[in-house]
TrEMBL record:
Keyword Metal-binding annotated: yes
Domain named Phosphomannose isomerase type I catalytic: residues: 7-108
Matches recorded under Pfam families: MPI_cupin_dom, PMI_typeI_cat
Residue intervals of the Mannose-6-phosphate isomerase cupin domain: 241-317
Originating species: Oceanobacillus sojae
Family to which this protein belongs: Belongs to the mannose-6-phosphate isomerase type 1 family.
The encoding gene: manA
GO MF term set: mannose-6-phosphate isomerase activity; zinc ion binding
Bound cofactor: record note: Binds 1 zinc ion per subunit.
Presence of the UniProt keyword Zinc in the record: yes
The name this protein goes by in its record: Mannose-6-phosphate isomerase
Highest taxon of source: Bacteria
Catalytic residues, chain numbering: R195
InterPro entries in the record: Carb_Metab_Reg_Kinase/Isom, Man6P_Isoase-1, Man6P_isomerase_Firm_short, MPI_cupin_dom, PMI_typeI_cat, RmlC-like_jellyroll, RmlC_Cupin_sf
UniProt record, GO biological process: carbohydrate metabolic process
Amino acid sequence: MYNEPIFLEPVLQERIWGGNKLSTEFGYQTPYEHTGEAWVISAHPNGPSKIKNGPLEGNTLQDAWEKHGKLFNRAGAASESYPLLVKILDANENLSVQVHPDDSYAQEKEDVPYGKTECWYVLDAEEGAELILGHHAKNRKELQKAMENGEWDSLLKRVPVTAGDFVYVPSGTIHAIGAGIVILETQQSSDITYRVYDYNRTDVNGNPRDLHLKQAAEVTNIPHEAPKEEIVQETIEDLTIRKLVEEAYFTVYHWDLRGNAILERKGDFLQVSVIKGKAEIVIDNKTFPLEKGVHFIIPNTIKDFSLQGNAEMIVSHT
């Protein structure tokens, strides 16, 4: 039986808007001047994480998903793609204004298994930082007209954020992460983005970056409705658990550990990202150290475990 966490190596991604906080704040070896994303729990073909320990060391998470289904409560080989993707994003500059399709549109138009519903936990935000979340258009004709005329100031809704804020972003929501924000993103395992506006930036070759106004107009939710958030909190020994969101694709928690706790695994498997502090996880009398920037999966073969230390984590499952 597989009786240890599956620790994962982040995959670093270059982005025009990226900075250096993935190196300075998390200690990752960033290969680019503008490193915007660390795909920290990923089985997506555009950046699969490698396993760092145990019998599957050196394999990718995708390998494990396809060949070792019991770890994820799957019988035999996987007929579906790994469902989730966890990232840390460092927005040194504004990200493009964008929108993602739902499953049915992504499958029909892009021939990929998943659309993209996502959520953000704000790890850091400079004073005055803000997100774009939603729009003011009353119907699709009004949305298309505002896009074509570049009426961005009147069209887009802006939201100030600070560290510790949580934002749920269903597919079809126009959005953008603003400059000076670092987030941990939990999302469906999809890399489909329709760019709406990009501040007239150019790529490394001096060419304007592509926009996808037709697709964006087709998939955007109209009118925009802010999701209703109901955060539920419970305490297990010295662990405070805040359930940030529970919906069709994922459930996401914030764990605040201040001592010791014994827990049972929830979901078919559990994804864990340490965002602050140090701790240990103990499984079958084996102890594994945890610290900020460590990401791992508790597989289905592990039913219970204990934690000890002082740390904060973002935890998710399907």
